[in-house]
Design brief:
95 residues; alpha+beta; Glutaredoxin; globular
Length: 95
């Protein structure tokens, strides 16, 4: 099990707005951070809130990109293109 990940799989949901530059950057950044620090012990779901606005509404997401850490608890969220790797790791519980 990778360091900083006590048990189970890290479940993430990233809300994006189509292929907007910040959305594409956020996908690239969260994928790189997750691979580097959690290996295969994560699941990333990408939701396009333009195509699925009801999903964004259900999670109270009004700005993209927004990353939700769903598991392990507690749920956390971070808004932006996720370029601050230290901040993202703090949210995800990584080291």
């Amino acid at each position: 099990m990778p360091a900083g990940k006590p048990n189970g799989v890290l479940r993430l949901r990233l809300y994006v707005a189509g292929s907007a530059p910040n959305s594409l950057r956020a996908i690239k950044n969260v994928t790189a951070i997750s691979e580097a620090h959690f290996g295969g012990a994560y699941h990333l779901e990408i939701v396009d809130m333009i195509a699925q606005p009801e999903r964004a509404l259900a999670d109270a997401v009004i700005v993209t990109p927004t990353l939700l850490k769903l598991e392990p608890a507690p749920t956390q969220r971070i808004v932006g293109n996720l370029s601050d790797a230290d901040r993202v790791l703090l949210l995800l519980g990584g080291t």
